[in-house]
Amino acid sequence: MIVKKTWRQKSILFLTGFFLISLLFACQTASINESSTSTATPVTEKTFSTQSFAVAYPDRELTTSPARLPELPYAANALEKAIDAETMKLHHDRHHAAYVKNLNAALQKYPELQNKSVEAMLRDLNSVPEDIRETVRNNGGGHLNHTIFWQIMSPNGGGEPTGEIAQQINQTFGSFDAFKKQFNQAGGDRFGSGWVWLVRNPQNQLQIVTTPNQDSPIMDSLYPIMGNDVWEHAYYLRYQNQRAEYLNNWWNVVNWSEINRRIQAVSQQDDT
Ligand SMILES: [Fe+2]
Question: Which of 250, 255, 262, 270 could disulfide-pair with 154, CB 3.0 to 4.6 Å?
Answer without folding.
Answer: 255
